[in-house]
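Researcher: We're teaching a course module on how sequence relates to structure. For the next exercise, students receive a sequence and then see the predicted structure as tokens, so they can try to spot secondary structure elements on their own. Here is the exercise chain.
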Amino acid sequence: MNGYERRTQSKKESIINAARELFTERGITDVGISEIAAKANVSQVSIYNYFGDKNTLAKETLISYLDKAIKGYEEILERAIPFSEKLKLIMDKKQDYVIEVSSFHFSKYAWEDKTLQQVYKEAATIKAVSVYTKFIELGKKEGAIAEDIPNDAILTFLFSSVAIMQQTDYLKTSPEYKMGVLRLSLYGMLGKEE
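Model: And here is the predicted structure for the students to work with:
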């Protein structure tokens, strides 16, 4: 990456980080491009050049958040600890991510926006397949997941569980409810909690 590309990438990251912070504090609707530009220490023109409009920036902010979450899961899967401990850490991290995403204060309009929903679902699905596959393979290797269940069947099951978590009202539920759904999804597949 040359100097220009590094500066461009750095500006984009600054804009996304500023947008994430402001959107989390006040929601998308109540934050202006001028505020994001000031916080990111860039011009408004840079935001429009890189992202086009505030809605696209909001979508990119959500996607960057998903990238961060996936990276966190991958780091857990790389640890030299038993599968059951990895599972517990992933469940805890998933709970933290769900709570954090629900604190983004995306307006009701934003969450009901079909484009935002589609971007979120596509990004989450594409990014999740590699992590889920690695998770499944590790589980099979350690004997926690039955080897005779095809990976694609397990992926279908996992994605059907994720569909519950992507329902609009899911983010409004209690932390106990969210953890219950997650535990049912994972421990139901494993047949036990240990």
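Model: If you want an answer key for the exercise: The chain has two domains: 1-52, 55-190. Residues 24 and 100 are 9 Å apart (CA to CA).
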